[in-house]
Write a structure and sequence with these properties.
Blueprint lengths: L11 H7 L15 E4 L5 E3 L5 E3 L11 E6 L6 E7 L2 E4 L10 E2 L5 H7 L2 E2 L1 H5 L32 E2 L3 H10 L3 H8 L24 E3 L9 E3 L4 E9 L4 E8 L6 E6 L9 E2 L1
Antiparallel strand pairs: 1-4, 2-3, 4-5, 5-6, 7-8, 9-15, 10-11, 12-13, 13-14
Length: about 270
């Protein structure tokens, strides 16, 4: 099987789809998790009114604006970071739910990378926590409305395409966003990043399956790349995800199969 990241490129069709989701930054009705933000950092407004963040982390210092959130469903605590005007999880979600997996079915990878979720699980198609992702999944279409809490803790939600695009601009543009967002170690082929804003994206890999039978399951790309699910649907088979690779310094939204399983990074409401 060809590696998924060998074809991690934006097609003409996806360019059209990428511009179709305008996102929605309205607050959710869900109560917030216990969270705190520490210290502060400077930022500036870009010409498009996106707050451009100031690089806050180098090999010798780390002045990023961190906080924490505790998921009241299982008590796990996650590091958070403010980038521009957005507050992101600085670690991958590790909440265990149906249709979520550890890389190679090994608990040590969940401890390192968090869990891998199908798009249906990421969207909470079963309505365990909210109704905005109802019936979203493989081989079906849905009419979700942003923000979609999905699998995220209370007060947080699955990022929309627009929220990912805002992140790209906040860290200097998508052509260099991959380098800025990737962790400083763990990536193959000298592909580690600067982690200049404390996002610390790890090369968690993925779980690949056609969605029609479990016998074709393959775990791929640990060390080589990662995706993070978006709440944006393309069609009944595919959804959007943020793509980061070891051999490129850019970051972009790509078209990926809903039956595959990827990490989740939540953004605060």
């Amino acid at each position: 099987m060809k590696k998924l990241f060998a074809i991690c490129a934006v097609s003409v069709f996806f360019l059209v789809a990428c511009g179709g989701d305008s996102g929605n930054n309205a607050n959710s009705d869900e109560p917030e998790s216990s969270s705190s933000v520490k210290s502060s950092s400077s930022s500036a407004k870009s010409s498009s009114s996106v707050t451009v963040a100031t690089s806050c982390k180098t090999e010798k210092k780390d002045n990023c604006e961190y906080g924490s959130l505790t998921d009241d469903r299982d008590g796990q605590t996650y590091k958070t970071v403010k980038i521009g005007e957005q507050i992101w999880m600085a670690e991958n979600l590790n909440y265990e739910e149906r249709n979520s997996y550890c890389y190679n079915d090994s608990a040590e990878y969940c401890a390192k990378y968090g869990r891998l979720y199908t798009w249906a699980a990421a969207m909470d198609s079963a309505e365990s926590w909210s109704s905005n992702g109802r019936y979203c999944g493989f081989n079906k279409t849905c009419s979700s409305k942003n923000p979609v809490r999905g699998i995220c803790p209370k007060g947080w939600h699955l990022p929309s395409d627009q929220e990912f695009k805002t992140l790209f601009e906040a860290v200097g543009g998508k052509s260099t966003a991959g380098t800025a967002l990737k962790s400083t170690s763990g990536w193959h082929n000298e592909g580690s990043g600067t982690d200049a804003f404390g996002f610390s994206a790890l090369p968690a890999g993925d779980r690949e399956t056609s969605g029609r039978r479990d016998a074709d399951v393959v775990f791929n790309n640990e060390g080589n790349g990662t995706y993070f699910w978006s709440s944006a649907e393309f069609d009944k088979i595919n959804a959007h995800g943020l793509c980061l690779k070891d051999y490129h310094g850019d970051a972009y939204l790509d078209l990926v199969r809903k039956s595959y399983s990827f990490p989740v990074r939540c953004i605060q409401d």
